[in-house]
Amino acid sequence: MKNTLYRNSLVAAFSICFSFAQAQQPAIIEDFKPSELNQPQQEYPMVNSQGYARFKIIAPAADSVRVSLGLGGRGGTKLAKAEDGSWMGTTEGPMDEGFHYYNVRIDGGKFNDPGTLNYYGSVRWESGIEIPAKDQGFYALKNVPHGNVQQILFPSPSTNTSRRAFVYTPPGYEKGKDKYPVLYLQHGWGEDETAWMNQGHANLIMDNLIADGKIKPFIIVCTYGMTNDIKPGQGGGLRSFKIEPFQTVLVDELIPYVDANFRTIAKKEQRAMAGLSMGGFETKTISMNKTDVFDYYGLLSGGVYAPADFKDKPQPKLIFISCGSKERPDGVKKAGEELKAAGFNAVSYVSEGTAHEFQTWRRSLYQMAPLLFK
């Protein structure tokens, strides 16, 4: 009798909890619109006002279709086959605001979604989707004066080739004579020199800050940081990455080329380096190795500095460290407090509601830029 009562109580409790969970799960609002990153005339993928994403893949002969790991946070999104042979599905829950990479698994093979544009990430060109953010205005395309983003090819004797970089010059640069400070801004693991302008909208962030009078205009330079071609999952991954080849490219080849071909203020006091994720690792290592090159440091989800790192080294003019609230914000906050207590001009920033993703880094650049070159 006691066992029966206990079992019935468990069933009742489970039913109540299940009903409560169902009641707490908000209904999906059917206000889906094409993602702003879709190919011309393509309806899918779509996003709604709650941050859900919906996908449609035409694969009539497929046995299974799934959108890549990470969307929805529970192993990806499994699509269901419709009568017309297409496959459709909606993420299990809302996604973080901002940009996300994804791919499509069809019968185990990895493909890109033909409905959307591709972006270089995960050491390959991946599909991209944008979940509109409440604060997207700071990187929106607005009717303000725009700077110029140009590709340059600079000689690199150390790698026996010419290497590529992208250079943002602020509005009015071409018609003026002023000289400008420079931020060398690095991408993350598996990305390349296109990431900050394409996925990160660094140029639009700068345009809008300059138009609002919030920053002193400066140049941004982005180049490829994977000089020794270590591939994820091979040879120890990031632990096998050696900084020396890239340090040579950046410090001995790229910076002299930029200073010779652009109107820069070629002084340590007017030069900054920052990077996201692996680019933060590069920034910290090079800034410690070459204390005479940069005076402003930024680690965006890329580790932290400690006062002990600067033993017998000069203090920089600024240390900026950041991450998303879904990463390890306590470590970033603590590091910022310890640096300030030790007399450093240090600023820590946490992007609310985001993880190791571009919305975190867009917001970080927006917060960091006004602090540079003071």
UniProtKB/TrEMBL annotation:
Pfam families: Esterase
InterPro entries documented for this protein: AB_hydrolase_fold, Esterase-like, Ig-like_fold, Mycobacterial_A85_antigen
Listed CDD domains: E_set_Esterase_N (cd02858)
GO molecular function terms noted in the UniProt entry: acyltransferase activity, transferring groups other than amino-acyl groups
SUPFAM superfamilies, per the entry: alpha/beta-Hydrolases
Signal peptide: 1-23
Keyword field: Signal
Name listed for the protein in its UniProt record: Esterase
